[in-house]
Amino acid sequence: MSLGLEFDLTPIPPPSPCQVLTFGRGGGRYGETFTVDVDAALRDFEERVGLAGPKNTPTLANLAKQAVRRSSWTHPFLGFSPARTSRMLTRLAAGRPCLSAESVRLGLRARLQERLAAVVAANAC
Fold first, then answer.
1. Phi and psi dihedrals of 36, rounded to 5?
2. What residue spans define the domains of the chain?
């Protein structure tokens, strides 16, 4: 938000389903960009991950997820692979960059230079 831009997110599939099986999937379809409300994103993160981490109660679903996590041969059948992740990252990298307004960048640069000058002055012999 300090960059003067909305927070746009493009989810990409992880190379293995382990994180998705552990924490669940966030919103949006893989490869489609959408705008995220920061407060909503933080609430979603807290609900799925939280400070205590994922809940591992011994339900049938959790036991099945654990078995899939341990059996890497099942991962491609779920649509997860390093090659797919690589293709999505390459496609995102080739997209149009989204820069902050020049006035915002210049203001941030000036603040950074002021902070750097203060650090240098504080550590001068």
1. -115, 130
2. 7-100
